[in-house]
Amino acid sequence: xxxxxxxxxxxxxxxxKQALILQRFFKTGPGEYxxxxxxxxxxVPVLRGIARQHQDLSLKETExxxxxSFHEERLLALFILIFHFNKADSKKKEKIYRLYLKSTxxxxxxxxxxxxxxxxxxxxLLDKNKGILSELAQSKDMWERRIAILSTxxxxxxxxxxxxxxxxxxLLNDREDLIHKALGWMLREVGKRSLNxxxxxxxxxxxxxxxxxxxxxxxRFPEKKRQAYLKGLV
Length: 234
Description:
Elements: H1 2-11, H2 16-25, H3 44-53, H4 59-66, H5 71-87, H6 90-102, H7 110-114, H8 117-125, H9 131-137, H10 142-151, H11 153-157, H12 162-171, H13 177-193, H14 195-205, H15 211-217, H16 223-230
Helix pairs in contact: 3-5, 4-5, 5-6, 8-10, 9-10, 10-13, 12-13, 13-14, 13-15
């Protein structure tokens, strides 16, 4: 019942022209990484506002919403999960974390991963064994591999870089461009806080890492240094 009400509420904000734009942007065509995904055409700030209004939706109903065939409904469910997680005690945090990991088949695009992984997986694992991230980084599922590296963003923000570099090593030979971009992005975030840490990693691996990852990692370097890395002269 509540899910029907939420769906009807979302329909009031739906925009067919925007939906078509999003379907192209998020690569939903035949053979593309989000083949068949459906969009309502609702912008993220609107979804965040709706999530705030429905942040007390039960976990079970939130899980059901996450199973929606509509991209925006899955994103809405993930925003609500973050609200739940931030208010939860340790026992409920673990329940939400496990719900997230068992639901990765529905967290199946880069935006769904990027706005949630650090807030749930990263936040839960901060002071716990992080072996699960190595498992995710070696998954056949691209989105699970992206969850692995994006979850470490939470650690980076706490000044902890070892796990990011550990997962980065696993992903150095990944074939997917979306993983290369995420890898380079996280290395760049490390560099914002400790340039020496980032450069120690880069000097060891920059000649073998994916070119896209390298470009993302050195994006904010001074031009002379950036060119030296790109030309293999470091």
